[in-house]
Write a structure and sequence with these properties.
This protein is of the alpha+beta class and 227 residues long. 42% of the residues lie in helices and 18% in strands.
């Protein structure tokens, strides 16, 4: 579906529709592919994305990317993680990653982090809040078959103020508002107090019962418990 959708966008610049063929240099046994025709417009793309013949991220390139472009990029190279999303950008340098991360922060208000991969390269990582913001931007443009990649955070209303927030843990019920944080601490302290109070009372009960002995009254002969 992803390849066919790309074909629909570019079909005026394509001579032959996508064909299924053996994939000798990538993942999987087969691939669906098509080739574009020669066109002067591609020279503009080549000059923008491959200055000096090398694919290089520049401010000029980033400045022309809109929400649909972000969606296509993510559908190609993005993936969902347990607590966010990542974009496989291992082909770019550290300096290029810093440029992309700054662009995400200023243009899209998305705080992307630069991570080191096992191969000594870099990739972009978006934790929960950033991933939620990013996926909200691109969701209208993501194909139905590719929406499994979108990050859907656990959201719930704060028990103190009622605003909806992203719960980082299953047991999180308060948002980051300072007042709500104080309310959370007070709630936790009360829960600990009640737990410890019951534990202390139970120990006292156990001690009393453990010290009790059965005695016989020397006057009337009746039995009773003492302790």
């Amino acid at each position: 579906e992803l390849v066919k959708s790309k074909y629909e966008v570019l079909k005026d610049l394509v001579g032959t529709p996508p064909k299924l063929q053996l994939n000798s240099q990538g993942w999987g046994g087969h691939q669906l592919a098509f080739n574009t025709l020669s066109n002067p417009d591609f020279s503009i793309v080549l000059k923008t994305c491959f200055p000096n013949g090398v694919k290089t991220v520049t401010e000029e390139w980033l400045s022309i990317i809109k929400e649909p472009g972000l969606a296509w990029w993510f559908m190609d190279d993005g993936s969902k993680q347990k607590a966010g999303v990542r974009i496989s950008t291992e082909g770019f340098s550290r300096q290029e990653h810093e440029l992309i991360a700054e662009w995400f922060a200023t243009r899209w208000q998305v705080r992307a982090k630069i991570r080191n991969s096992k191969r000594g390269m870099f990739f972009l990582d978006m934790p929960q809040d950033a991933a939620h913001r990013f996926c909200q931007l691109i969701e209208p443009y993501v194909l139905p078959s590719m929406r499994y990649k979108l990050y859907k955070p656990r959201c719930r209303p704060c028990q103190n103020c009622g605003c909806v927030f992203i719960a980082r843990m299953e047991a999180s019920f308060f948002c980051k508002n300072p007042t709500c944080r104080k309310a959370r601490k007070a709630t936790v302290a009360k829960q600990l107090y009640l737990r410890d109070r019951e534990m202390i009372l139970q120990k006292m009960r156990d001690r009393v019962l453990g010290n009790q002995k059965e005695m016989t009254c020397t006057v009337c002969g009746a039995t009773f418990m003492t302790g």
